[in-house]
Specification:
This protein has 4 helices and no strands. The protein is mainly alpha-helical and about 130 residues long. Helix 3 packs across helix 4. One of its GO terms (cellular component) is axon.
Length: about 130
């Protein structure tokens, strides 16, 4: 692609006198080459922009999942700390737990979880990963 750009650049840097000496057929050929290159680069740009959008969406999903996971971890930590304080104050070893946990079953796969899995986890209010 770089070589194509430099070739087009070299072609367009011809002197005015050279261009004036070109026939209409040569000018039309030159125009077709430039238009073909523009179409090709436009198509590649569209593909690259679509890929960038996919990556941006993936990043948003992962960030949402991480935020929910951290929130759940913080809530569990606060709950455990409150239970410890209650145990010390009441003197009993075992107090009934008021925290409800939910286990979301999933099929463990090799590699990272899919975006769909992360979206499902993120939409759940409370989750526990095993």
């Amino acid at each position: 692609m770089e070589s194509e750009l430099s070739l087009i650049s070299q072609k367009t840097q011809r002197s005015h006198s050279r261009v004036r000496l070109m026939s209409a057929l040569e000018l039309n050929d030159e125009l077709e080459d430039v238009e073909t290159a523009i179409r090709r680069y436009s198509e590649e740009l569209i593909q690259q922009l679509a890929f960038r959008d996919e990556l941006e969406f993936e990043k948003e999903v992962k960030n949402s999942f991480i935020a929910v996971l951290i929130d759940v971890q913080n809530r569990l930590k606060v709950h455990r700390e409150m239970l410890k304080k209650k145990r010390k104050m009441s003197g009993s070893e075992r107090l009934p737990s008021s925290c409800v946990t939910t286990v979301i079953l999933y099929e463990r796969k090799d590699g990272p979880r899919s975006l769909q899995d992360l979206q499902i986890f993120t939409k759940s209010e409370c989750f526990y990963l095993t």
